């Protein structure tokens, strides 16, 4: 048990995608990787995570849960560095679970000069050893996967599942996006749910892949393959809260059909707004609030001399908007090479709409949404890029739904 306190808190982060500084020299090859990293920051994550640990040491949550994709692409050195960064925690337990980029990822690389080289990958045994302090707290460890359970306090049990699809040896191919739990792990999960029921513990369930589809247009490979079986289990034992990651977006889905679980997907820590969730539990209530890490407050004096670090959210927003906008603009320039202004406007709009969705700040009133859809730039955007029309219609929400706060009563 992590704490005897019936009123306690823990934090949730996801998709940190750390690549250790020792694996690159800021050279040409690494610069190119940063440009193609889909809006992730690769340069400053050691600094950002170290500052985050300083805040945790000050505020002392009972635990920090990381819902997968700890590393950039499964580099063993990156996982070791992550564990080292979090080692100073004294009152807070680090609880990690793997993502689809962590175990036997054939994309593991290090970068020197103009070239990239194969980097050592992470086996399941290495993972357990690197993050042994997480597994040492376990009530139970699944022998068929990297899943384990931890008792948070006298009232709550955490189940940290392994939803990833990886082989039994090092890989030379891209990591699988899709994931599943499998029959053996589901059997273990049921045993944990039974244990919780027998000991009057409420369950909070965590995994990398999603329980629900958080975007109706883009969800293939994101929802765990055996979601039907998992939802049935969660319903049988009245599990009301699930945490996941994978899609890099801050999004909350209410219970679906007969499954009573609310699912909170935490946005990627290395992009967007440096999101972390604060979860407060008491015997009869759980509250969740999405926060944005104010990194500047926890930088060293030397780090505060770096303009990028002291304006980090602006930097992350520029990366995200630039990456998304550039992808569209490159395609449109072939068709509209004589109208650069319109191409830029379409790229900017496409980027902003995506950014609002990924940060969970996508609520808009109905009239504003209709005005946007009738605008000349939006109409031209969907006319020249009809493949995005359905997707763009899913990015804004005119309901009272909230992606940043949740309260669950028992």
Commentary on this structure:
By secondary structure, the chain is an alpha/beta fold. It folds into 2 domains: 298 residues, Purple Acid Phosphatase, chain A, domain 2 (4-Layer Sandwich); 85 residues. It is 35% helix and 18% strand. The protein is built from 13 helices and 15 strands. The strands form 3 sheets. Strands 6-7-8-9-10-12-11 form a 7-stranded mixed sheet, covered by helices on one side. Strands 3-2-1-13-14-15 form a 6-stranded mixed sheet. Helix 2 packs parallel to helix 3 and helix 10 crosses helix 12. Keywords: Hydrolase, Iron, Metal-binding. It comes from Lactobacillus gasseri. It holds the Pfam family CNP_C_terminal. GO terms for molecular function: hydrolase activity; metal ion binding.
Low-confidence segments? none
CATH architecture label of the largest domain = 4-Layer Sandwich
What spatial order of strands do you see in the largest sheet? 6-7-8-9-10-12-11
Summarize model confidence as the mean pLDDT. 95
- Given this structure, which CATH class of the largest domain is correct? Alpha Beta
Distance between the termini: 21 Å
Structural class of the secondary structure composition? alpha/beta
How many beta-strand elements? 15
Proportion in β-strands: 15-25%
The figure for the number of domains is 2
State the helicity in percent bands: 25-40%
Shape: globular
Figure out the total of helices: 13
What descriptive keywords fit this protein?
Purple Acid Phosphatase, chain A, domain 2; 2 domains; seven-stranded mixed β-sheet; six-stranded mixed β-sheet; 35% helix
């Amino acid at each position: 048990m992590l704490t005897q306190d019936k009123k306690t808190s823990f934090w949730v982060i996801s998709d940190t995608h750390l690549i250790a500084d020792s694996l690159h020299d800021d050279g040409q090859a690494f610069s190119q990787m940063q440009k193609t990293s889909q809006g992730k920051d690769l340069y400053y994550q050691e600094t950002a995570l170290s500052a985050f640990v300083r805040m945790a040491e000050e505020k002392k949550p009972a635990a920090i849960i990381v819902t997968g994709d700890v590393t950039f692409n499964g580099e063993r050195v990156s996982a070791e560095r992550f564990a080292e960064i979090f080692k100073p925690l004294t009152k807070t337990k680090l609880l990690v679970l793997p993502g689809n980029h962590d175990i036997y990822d054939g994309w593991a690389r290090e970068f020197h000069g103009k070239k990239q080289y194969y980097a050592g990958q992470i086996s399941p045994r290495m993972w357990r050893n690197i993050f042994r302090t997480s597994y040492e707290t376990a009530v139970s460890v699944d022998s068929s996967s990297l899943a384990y359970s931890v008792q948070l306090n006298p009232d709550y049990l955490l189940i940290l599942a392994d939803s990833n699809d990886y082989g039994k040896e090092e890989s030379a191919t891209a990591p699988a996006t899709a994931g599943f739990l499998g029959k053996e792990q589901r059997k273990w999960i049921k045993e944990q749910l039974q244990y919780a029921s027998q000991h009057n513990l409420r369950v909070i369930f965590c995994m990398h892949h999603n329980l629900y589809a958080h975007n109706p247009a883009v969800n293939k490979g994101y929802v765990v393959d055996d979601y039907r079986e998992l939802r049935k289990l969660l319903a049988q034992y009245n599990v009301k809260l699930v945490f996941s990651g994978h899609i890099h977006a801050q999004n909350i889905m209410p219970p679906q059909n007969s499954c009573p679980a609310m699912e909170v997907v935490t946005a990627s820590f290395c992009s967007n707004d440096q999101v972390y969730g604060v979860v407060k539990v008491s015997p009869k209530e759980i509250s969740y609030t999405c926060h944005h890490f104010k990194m500047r407050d926890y930088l060293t004096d030397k780090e505060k001399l770096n303009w990028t670090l002291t304006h980090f959210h602006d930097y992350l927003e520029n990366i995200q908007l630039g990456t998304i906008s550039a992808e569209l603009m490159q395609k449109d320039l072939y068709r509209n090479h004589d109208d650069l202004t319109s191409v830029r406007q379409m790229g900017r709009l496409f980027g902003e709409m995506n950014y609002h969705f990924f940060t969970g700040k996508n609520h808009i009133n109905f009239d504003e949404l209709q005005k946007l859809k009738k605008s000349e730039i939006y109409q031209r955007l969907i006319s020249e890029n009809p493949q995005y029309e359905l997707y763009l219609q899913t990015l804004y929400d005119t309901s009272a739904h909230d992606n940043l706060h949740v309260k669950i009563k028992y």
